[in-house]
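Show me a record, fold above all:
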Amino acid sequence: MARALLVQWYRQIPRPRTRESFHSWFKNHKKAIEQFQSLVTSRYQECTLQRLLANGDLVGRDAAAFCLGILGTWESNPHLASALKDADPAIREMAAEAMWSLWFRSHEPRNCQELRRIVRLRDRRKVLEGLNTLIVEAPDFAEAWNQRAIVHFKAKRFEDAIRDCERTLQLNPWHFGAQAGMAQAYMHMRKHNAALKAFRAAYRINPHMDGIVSTIRLLEKALDEGSSAE
């Protein structure tokens, strides 16, 4: 019964076109999604959506993951992380997208809005300045630290990127993006043992990230270690 209305409403949202990104689809159908959000909030609690994500059928899990991406609180982080290991690839992808959405709105609304504004800037120097200010004002906003790590990485400031990734993970231990980003930074620094350790940690959170298994195996072979990616 809990599934029926949710799935009915979810199916009324236009589906993504071939090769259309999640973000493009979300933008193009924002009005329909907002209507869906209003309906869901009137009938469903977060704990019900979490249960559907864990125990529902395919469509129910997909709808629940999507709902938690637009409505879920920080409490849904571990539930979505579990869905990263779902048997169905579409559920895994939806859960990953939902987690990114949750991370970007996991602080006070004004700080979340400011982070979105900052990351849309084209001038990397202004992005860095904005993130520095935001982190001072909201030092427990994990995604602000992660976005600054990305800026440092692109500027080849790998040690700074690693420090910001570490802080991100202290605040958000489910952040597979920060864990993989730290691994990549170690790779660029030719610290392959540290990179392997970080990639293995990323794998434990999200074992289906593109190329992660092959990267781990290549590093293990280069370092003459046994496989532990399975």
User: Anything to note?
Assistant: The chain has 14 helices and no strands. Residues 89-104 form the longest helix (16 residues). Residues 69 and 101 are 6 Å apart (CA to CA).
